[in-house]
Amino acid sequence: MTKKTIKTKTHYNFNDSWETLLENKAFVNAFLSEVLEDYITKQRWYGGKASKLKYIELSEYFRIQRDGEVYYGLILEVNFEEAFYQHYFLPIAFVSDESFAQEDRILSISIQNQEGFIIDAINLEAFRKLVFERILTAIPNDLTRVQYHKSILFNDEYESSRFMGLEQSNTSIVYNESFVLKFFRRIYANKNPDYEMSRFLSEKKQFKNTPAYLGSLSIVDSDNENITIGLMQEMVPNEGDAWDYMLKELEKVFETLETKNIDIAQLPETELFERLSIRDVPPRIIDWVGLNLFLKVQKLAERTAEMHIALGSEFEETAFTPTHFNGDYTVWLKNRLLYQFQNRLNTVENNLHKLEDLSLELAHEFLDNKNDIRKRLVNFDWTRLKGERIRVHGDYHLGQILVKEDDFYILDFEGEPESTIRDRKVKQPPLKDVAGLFRSFHYAIYATIFNNSEQYKHEQQELFDAGELLYTYFIGVFLKTYIEKIQDANLNIGYRQERIFLLKYSLLEKAIYELGYELNSRPLWAVIPLKGITNIINHK
Ligand SMILES: Nc1ncnc2c1ncn2[C@@H]1O[C@H](COP(=O)(O)OP(=O)(O)O)[C@@H](O)[C@H]1O
Ligand SMILES: O=P(O)(O)O[C@H]1O[C@H](CO)[C@@H](O[C@H]2O[C@H](CO)[C@@H](O)[C@H](O)[C@H]2O)[C@H](O)[C@H]1O
């Protein structure tokens, strides 16, 4: 039977049933090229905005179904002019009732003369409920192609579901106001580290300061790879993230400089990376900053150390067992960082027109310092490093930490967005995460200065000096608690010089990474990593 296809500009007619529609090549071709190219590039979760889309292919599709209710999970391969590709997950539903197709309408279509719409299925409560119930009723060791998994902690009946509606790169659904199911949008032919780490930390190590793992959804692709599609976790009621918290607190700290008319040049200094207990912080600094913020930094150090102790305490599961530095790691690290650095030089050169004043000045300094920076990246002698490498968070910053009743909860273990999935699973020195958080302190301090500069009487350079001083104290207080806890648990993160070397190396690595992130997504912020790089380079 020939399949007749009639297409008008915005409307498609197909004679296939919904259950067989994806077997129709004419439909798939039209859907991919005429509809999805336009649709996908407009989505918040689309990560290819800085590149030029060439074409989309349907890598795989699978059914998410129960009885007669059928949805498709599409795995889309987006190919770019720049000769690389990304995979995305898009679940689709056909609805004939327009009221179900108010949001995320992908295509208006008639199927066997039934008028309707193809929409992103996550908009449908029926779809969300089905996924919830399939996880709830998952059987142990599911060997089918679409696999659901449930932890023993997850036993609740379905009551409600809604979009979480926060700024994020994936799409999360809140169920029963108690659980969060994250549908991964950009996906990788492998278990997602967020799933792996969440399950490991909460199920195996009972680490309390991350949302409890409740279940997941994955598919086995045609190469037998297990691809994580969804991660269900407990919802942590919270007062916002640590980034917003820090900005709020820092605003007060910088205001105090004005209200107390503090002479910044007279404030007592401390050496960068010197461990400090809070009682060693000079009273004039406490008087300026307040005790509370130092207590918070101490608590963050405690939770970070506990996370690393849990991650570094495994002796069976090889994906998590600690290991030492070696030649292979060094070659991998240098290659990756030199490639990334070259990419950043290129990005900076191509984006100079977006920068002005201080950021333009710093960008030129960055380009002028390229040989020095490259030398620092190459200067990694593993034979001098005695500490351990473990699985780490990988994209650890204040925005990944929730604040709840004076405590912190760590989220989003997906790793650094630009790295390949295999690179994200490479064991790293735990101080790489610590450096990530230190960069975040630095970011928060500079964001406060830049956001409020008109309000302050002090000169910008004086504010930078105050900011650097504050940063040094934060780091000192953090390191004291962090290192003590880590050493008590016998996790070896290296001797003193080694720790300082790894911190400086990781700070530089992270700031270079951030420079690309900012230039591609919010060029006004590029000044922050540029300032960070200058400070790291100039620190003896
Ligand atoms: N289990 C949870 N409990 C409470 N809030 C959460 C939870 N998971 C995520 N969130 C909120 O959603 C935001 C985005 O989550 P995240 O895991 O970082 O998503 P993405 O990977 O899509 O960026 C977080 O910053 C946090 O505010
Ligand atoms: O979206 P993700 O959480 O995976 O992380 C990416 O976006 C972050 C910005 O939201 C970016 O973080 C950078 O900006 C933060 C302030 O907005 C700052 O606290 C971080 O220190 C800084 O790295 C992160 O790098 C990027 O991977």
Report on this model:
Helix content is 42%, strand content 20%. It contains 14 helices and 18 strands. Strands 1, 2, 3, 4, 5, 6, 7 and 12 form an 8-stranded mixed β-sheet that branches. A 6-stranded antiparallel β-sheet has the order 8-13-14-11-10-9. A two-stranded antiparallel sheet has the order 15-16. Helix 4 crosses helix 11 and helix 13 (496-521) packs antiparallel against helix 14. The radius of gyration is 25 Å and the shape is globular. The model is unreliable at 1-9 (pLDDT under 50). Adenosine-5'-diphosphate binds next to strand 11.
Write the layout of secondary structure elements.
Layout: E1 5-7, E2 11-14, H1 25-41, E3 53-66, E4 69-80, E5 85-95, E6 105-111, E7 114-120, H2 125-136, E8 146-150, E9 161-163, E10 171-175, E11 179-183, E12 186-187, H3 193-204, E13 213-220, E14 226-234, H4 242-259, H5 283-289, H6 291-311, E15 323-324, H7 327-351, H8 357-368, H9 370-378, E16 388-389, E17 401-404, E18 407-410, H10 421-424, H11 431-451, H12 460-488, H13 496-521, H14 527-538
Parallel strand pairs: 2-6
Antiparallel strand pairs: 1-2, 3-4, 4-5, 5-7, 5-12, 6-7, 8-13, 9-10, 10-11, 11-14, 13-14, 15-16, 17-18
Helix pairs in contact: 4-11, 6-12, 7-9, 7-13, 8-14, 11-12, 11-13, 13-14
The structure holds adenosine-5'-diphosphate (ADP) and ligand LMANGFYV.
